[in-house]
Every structure is written in C-alpha cells, then in structure tokens.
Fold:
Amino acid sequence: MAAQRVVPRPALSPHGTESSLQSEGAAFIPASALATAANRIFRTFGEGAVLPGVLQGVREGPSRCSAPPPLCAAPVAMEAPVRLWVKTEPFLVGALPAPPPARLGPHYLRKMAAYARARAAEGCFPRLSWPRWRHIACGKLQLGRGLAWLYFELFHSLLRPDPPRSLEWAEAEAACTGPDELEQERSKLSVDTLQFLLFLYVQQVNKVSLRRSLIGEEWPSPRTKSPSLTGKSASENKNWSDQDHCAFVQSHLLDMLELLLEPEQLTASSHSTHSSFVSYEAVRALSFLIEGSVSKSRTVHPLHELALWQPCHGQNGYSKVSRAFSFPKLESWLRSCLTTNPFGMTACLKSGKKLAWAQQVEGTTRRAKIACNTRVVPEVFPMVIMSQVYKQTLAKSSDTLVGAHVRIHRCNESFIYLLSPLRSVTIEKCRNSTFVLGPVQASVHVHSCDNVKVIVVCHRLCLSSTSGCTFYILTPTQPLILLGNEAVSFAPFHTHYPMLEDHMAQVGLATLPNYWDSPMLVCKESGDTSVFRLLPPSDFYTFVIPFEMEGDTTETPGGLPHAYQKALSQREQKVQIWQKTVKEAGLTKDQRKRFQMLVENKFYEWLVQTGNRQQLDSLVPPAVGSKQAAG
Structure:
C-alpha cells in the first residue's frame, strides 16, 4: 500500500495539554510496514516486549489497543529528530579559568549530594542556602570561606537575575556596616541544589590532566597557548570551545546523571543500576547545561521540555505513571542527540557575519578579522570575535554588541572602544593596547597579555598569565588573580561617556559596593601579594573618551577615592600656577610666539616618546571610501 501524507497533529505533553513543540519535518512510512514489523516483534517477544523508536509509538499510540494494529491502520508519522547541544554560558561564564580544588572532584560531590538530600529540612534540599553551603564547603570540603562564597556567588549571578534585582542586592550589600551584617544579608540567598552540583562539576573542565600532559596534548603551564580563530589550534581555550563543552558532557554524562539520582536509585557505592530511574526534577536540573530544538526549527527549548515531548518517550524511557525516566534509556537518548552548539564559537567563525569594523594598516601583512553570529534566537546571547587588530583605533557603540560575549584575540598596539552594555569579554594574547569597555554584566577575563590597559565597569574581573597590565575598574566583586601573573596594577575607574550610567542600569551594575582595591589570590601557587599593587596616586590620570554621543552622564560614576582626587587637584593647581606665571611674565609678542613654539615642540616630542602620537593620528576620521562598516 502506498504511503499516505497526513498533516501531523500538535504534540501533546504528558499531562494532555498541547505542547509548544511542533513536529516539523516529520517523515512518513507505510502503515503496512510498521504493522508488519510490530506483529513480528509481538510474536517473537510477547506482549511485554519493549519496542524501540517509532514501533513503540504504534504500540502505545492514541488507540491504546492491546492487539497489534490491523494492516489498514492509518499512516503513522516517524518521530521528528531532536537536536541537543551543550549551552555556552555555564562554561564560558560559569567555569573559573583555573584548575578546581581537589575536593570539588566527583567523589566528594557525590558525598555532598547525599549529605544535602539527607538534610532537606535544614535548608540543603531542594534549595541550598548560603549558610548550609558555607558549612559544607568549609567544614566538609575544606575550602576557605572566600572561595566558598566565590563559587556560590558566581553560580547565583550566572542565572541571569534581572537588573532591578541585581541593583537591589547591590544596594543591600553596600548598606552593610560590617561583616556580621553582610553575612546576615547573604544568608537570605539560596540556589537550586541539583543545578549547583552540576555547576561545581563543570569546574572540572579546566582540570589539568597529567596523562594528557605526558602525551603532549596539554601541559600545566600558566602560559598555555591560546586558540587561533581558525579553530585548528591543538591547545584550545576550553571556556570558549563548544567542541570541548560537548566532549566534556559526553565524557562525564554518566557521572553527572548519577549525581542527580535519588539515594534509593543508587548502589552502596553511589552508582546507578540498569533499573535506576531519573526523576523529572533531575532532568529539569540538567537543563542548566543542555538545551535543543526539534528538527531544524530555530526555536530553542530547555532539555526538560524536549524530554517530555511525547514522540521522545520511547527513546528516553519516560513513564507518565512515575514521572521519571529510565536511566539507561535517558543516557542513551542524550548521547545520541547531543551535537555541536549551533550558536557557539565554531558556528560563529564558520558561518557568522564578517564585520569590516577595522582598517587594514598599510605596510602590514596581518589583516584584522571580526565576526559575529547574528541574533537568530532571542534566548541565546550573540558572540563577537575579533582578532589581529594592529596599530589602529577601533570604536563601536552598536546593537551588535548589546548583550554579546566578546572575544578579543591577538591585538597589538591598538586602542579599542566597545561602548555598549556587554555580557562577557575575554582578552587573549594582546600586547601594548588599551581597551575601553562598556559595562560588562558577567565577567572580563584577561589571559596571556602584556602591557595592556583595561578600563571597565564589570561584575567580575579574572586575570591569568598577565604581565605589566593595569586595570581601571569598578566592580562589586573581588578581582580574581589566577595563575601566572606578574606586575599587575589596579586603579579606580576613571572615565565616562554619555550613555554609561544608562548602560550600567541595563546590566544591573551600581557604583557601590566597589572592590577594585581588594583582589583575591585564587591560586596560591601564583605567588603572594607582591604580584599586584595599587597604582600610586602620583601616577594616576583621568582618561577622556574622545567621542561624542547622546546621553546624560557627565562625570565618572561614583567619583574617585580621596587620595586620587587629591592628587588630581594638586596637579590642576600646578597647571593654574604655571598659566599664571606665564601670564605675569610680561613677554613681548615675539617672545610669546617663540615660547609657544618651544612648548609645542616639547609636547610633540612627548607624544612621540609615549606613543600617544599614534593614538591621536588614529582618531582622524578615515576617508569616505574606507569608512568602518556599520553593524
């Protein structure tokens, strides 16, 4: 009998309501072939047979019949394929770019999971309060209190709280007059226990493997190679590499699923069995790491919505009676559906939009490369990747940048202004450059850079393998000093542009609290406090952003610390005294002209010696035919 084409009905959720998922691209096969295959299985294995894939759909279809369907049954649609991928945010923003403490390994996390479930009444499960996590981290896992708060706050901020709530928390924290009040305020916070366990497990992505080091794939050096933007480097930045994210989840999926199991589903050694079941709540927690879509649809759904979609039940083993999934079937389904993130760095470099924001500098062989993935779905933050900007000034305030993850790679002797609210920024292998950034909602990570200046308001700043760098920052968290840093200078944020305060409000950043001068040494192996200093007030100058924009901000948000403001005032007084001295010198017209020429010559020499001549020259607008592209 020839196949008949039918219009697929809306898929139903397990509770009988119409799902938002559409059976797009469903293929159809002859009902006779399905029925014949089903009959053979029933005859061979009996009524209790577990039927794979679409054949189980015949068995458990809407008719609910106990006998095999007749040969004239209506055509049955093959289930539409589901694509799953690992989300970028938990790795890019959530994983600290440093090896995790040994006590955050899988063995200890399994113990923590059992401990939390056993003390649900004490604020450990299903949500884990800060006091209980502090007790577990400090008392059981032997972590320091600062590191315990770092992981807790990092996960809490990762879940994208809306900006008004972030500003409320900043106001409450700034109002605390001492450690006791601050601890009392923190005690009001809690996180989803299962998701937090997965977050802690994800920290293993940056664990240094001795075995891989011995065979040359990885070497535990603070200055490991950064990836090239061709994606061909063997030493990939794991926080950015979507291929590494997928490989990590595939390799550790069994451990992560077992971490989410209820105690009665585990053996005495805390492992699963073939008959274990995974609760719906556990799969919902796994949505922290995994999302996907149906067929080629661009609608993104969290994992638990896709897992509850009726056509997937045969493969992932969902039971409506127990509201749980068969462990082996769910694991197999996840592995078979996982693929590379279609919105990750690989896709951005391969098929993203190329942006002509930077100019080719005459006499150089390097060509600047800038790409972005277009906003194909609202649920995913866009990416902007730029590389090899050399000896020029690049300035943008663009919708393309709003809420974007930005990666700046191998830029040299340049001045880069990105004056839009951003999600995160990574600056890698750059030298002798200045970066002026709009407010960054999540984190700024500077890695393997020499002699760069970074001027930014951000939620968090992480440094690894930097040398001679200066950071002018306003941040509500302690700057993190990881491995391999030397001669780091911190200074207060010292500039403004007209839209700055509006952009800060958009990402939920306030002027207080401000921990710019209280860095935290996360990796003690990197040395002691001598790796950083606070910039002396005598070396401090304000920074002027030389572009006109609409907006209301006319001064540095939050002002300057007293010592730095005093140094600026004293310098201004010296200028005023000099101007008064020149005015009262009684110079003739010819003397004033010669004196003016002398001052200008000395100023020009200073511009050349300091490199500021290049910066001024690069501010000259390009010719009409070579304007930087919009976007």
